Structure formats: C-alpha cells, structure tokens
Amino acid sequence: MKRLWLVFAQTVTVLVAVFFVVATLQPQWLGRRALPSVVPVFEASPTSNPVVDPGTVSLRAAAKAASPAVVSINTSKAPADNPNSTDPWFRFFFGDQLNNQPQTGLGSGVILSPAGYLLTNNHVVEEADEIQVILNDGRQTAAKVIGTDPETDLAVLKIELTDLPVITLGNSDALQIGDPVLAIGNPFGVGQTVTSGIVSALGRTQLGINTFENFIQTDAAINPGNSGGALVDVNGHLMGINTAIYSRSGGSMGIGFAIPTSTARSVMEAIVKDGQVTRGWIGVEPQDLTPELAESFGVGTKQGVIITGVLQNGPAAQAGIRPGDVITRVKGREVKDVPQLLSAVAALAPGETAELDVLRRTESLKVTVTAGRRNLARQAVNRR
C-alpha cells in the first residue's frame, strides 16, 4: 500500500511539472492565449491617460493657416536737418560725424481685410516717413497709415495688392489661462518666426504701457521685431496683437503681452470708418479705493473708485459728482478699479447719457451724466 501511494505521488508531481512547462512555453497546445511579458501601464491602470499620437498635438496646422497673413514691416525716418551741415568750417572740424543717416525700425503686422487693411502697433510706425511691408510670399509694397490710436498702441495701415491672405479673427474673450497659443512675427529681422506657449494670465492692467490696458499675458517667446505680430490659437485664429515684453536683457524672458482681438477689432473698425477712435470723457480724477481713503472720506464701502477731483464745468461736475464720491457702476457695468472705470467711460459715445451708481458716505445715489469727447490733450493731465 505504501509503495502504491509513493508511485501515485510521483506520477502527480511529474504531470504537474509537465503541465507547467507546456502552459508556459506552448500555451496554444492547451487552447490558451499567451500572456504578454510586459503589461502596458495604460492597460494595467484604467485611470491612466492613454498614449497620445504625437501628430495630434502638432501646431503645424495653426501656423500654416495664420503665417501667410503675418507681414514684416520696415520703417525709415529722415534725419533731422542740422543747421550747420552746410557750413564748411563746421564740417572741417567735425567731418562726417553729422547724423545724416535715416533712422530705421523693424516690426510686424497682420492682414485683416482683402482690401489691404492691416493692424500693427502704433510704436512700430510712429513718426515714420516711409513704411515698407513684406509679405510672407516675398511680395513687397509701400504702406499708407490710415489712422493710429496711441492710447491702445494700435495703428491701421493699407497696402495696394491683390490676392491677399487674410487671418481669421478669433474670440479673445473665450480664452482661458493655460490655452496653447502661437506668436508669429519677425524678431530681430531674422525673418518670420513662430514660437509657442500658453496663455499665462488675462486682463493684465496697470503696467504703464498704454492708457487702456487689458493685456493677454503669454510665455510664447516675443522679441524686438515681434511688435504688431499675431498671437493665434490652435486653430490659427487671431487672439491678439503682440505688443510688449517684460525683459531685463532686451530679449524674451517668458513674459509677453498682447492686445486682445476684442479691443483691436473695435479700434480698427473706428479708424477705418472715421479715421480715429472716439471715446467718452466725464472729467474726474479717480483713484483706487483703499482702506485709508475710505476712512478719510468716511465712505462705508470697500469696492469702487473714489473721485478725488472733479473738473470745473465738466460733465461730471454738471451732473453733481463731488470729490469723495465713490463710483461703483457705470451704466450697469460694475467698476472695481481705475482701469475698469476708464474703460466703461471711454465706451460711452460723446453726448450719450449714462447712469452712475454713486456712494456718498453712506448714501446711495443714481447720477445721470452726459459724456463729453475724450482727446489726447486731456490725457496729458490724466483726466478720465
């Protein structure tokens, strides 16, 4: 009996060993599918992200769609006449050190209309005597300034060419922080260049760059020569006009600013229609409401813009606005700081009446004001 049990045990052991070897090396003999030697991470963990095809994240389509409509702009300005330039004794002592060379500049622009209208920065073409536009297809032509808006640093040019590529305008108000964007322009005059990044911030104000500020901040590389170029989304739609950078070296440090398309569109439409941008004005000196100012004027709110000065006989004075009043809304639009008040008032057409929500100490008032016309002369004295 003991001998039989020993034979049975040895037989079972051999059969188990044979089954293990066959199951491992030749599983098809048993009708089973071989197990992979390495299990992909995305299969092992249902919560992991799937592998992404590199072709799906390429921005080549956006660059291809937008690049033809982005141009390079070369400007030149004649040197100022020196009254001694024709004096032979002056030239004898100073020779050719006279500054008789024209001043040149570089920038970029974006074609927005088949009729030849394009947008760029005002500082790119400011005081230029000649403006030369170079298209991405190699064509060159002179450009004419239709109008400028120094308060937003925008300018509209016009070129006389046919078959012009036109960029598609996007909805800059729909941008979100983290959205990928491309900056297209002509940095340092090396030729058209495309850089990529994301939207780093929205609604940047109080940078001291323009009077009206509502910048898109991006880390897409923007360098000298990119000014006036395009900031586009992944579809190649125009989201902004590249305008400025923060830099300690003169080159890109990952902090660039673009004027949103929503602003650029309205400025361009006004310039093409009227040759200038017309904005409202009420004649006040505003300041952001601080706890110290609120306590000093006895104001019972922490939100709004406090008026520290009112121009005599100006629209606000005629409406009854006084120093110490806090404006919280303009025509139903909430204002929390000076840039918001400035934008809300500027949006009023001259002669248009608007209701202001005003807090005078602890009393809430509704004041109706008739907007005047804002001009650059008033900007010099910081009137809003």
Key structural traits:
single chain, about 375 residues, alpha+beta, Thrombin, subunit H, 4 domains, 6-stranded antiparallel β-barrel, 6-stranded antiparallel barrel, about 30% strand, flat
Can you tell me about this structure?
This protein has 384 residues and is α+β, with helices and mostly antiparallel strands. It has 4 domains: 2-44, no CATH class; 62-159, Trypsin-like serine proteases (Thrombin, subunit H, Beta Barrel), CATH 2.40.10.10; 172-263, Beta Barrel (Thrombin, subunit H); 279-379, PDZ domain (Pdz3 Domain, Roll), CATH 2.30.42. Helix content is 22%, strand content 32%. The chain contains 10 helices and 20 strands. The protein has helices spanning 2-25, 41-44, 60-66, 88-94, 122-125, 261-274, 291-297, 315-319, 338-346, 376-379, and strands at 70-77, 103-111, 117-121, 130-134, 140-149, 154-159, 180-185, 193-204, 215-218, 230-232, 238-245, 256-260, 279-281, 284-288, 305-310, 326-330, 333-334, 353-360, 363-370, 372-374. The strands form 4 sheets. Strands 1-2-3-6-5-4 form a 6-stranded antiparallel β-barrel. A 6-stranded antiparallel β-barrel has the order 7-8-9-12-11-10. Strands 14, 15, 16, 17, 18 and 19 form a 6-stranded antiparallel β-sheet that branches. Strand 10 and strand 11 (238-245) form a beta hairpin. It starts with a helix and ends in a 5-residue tail after the last helix. 34% of the residues are buried. Residues 34-55 and 377-384 have low confidence and may be disordered.
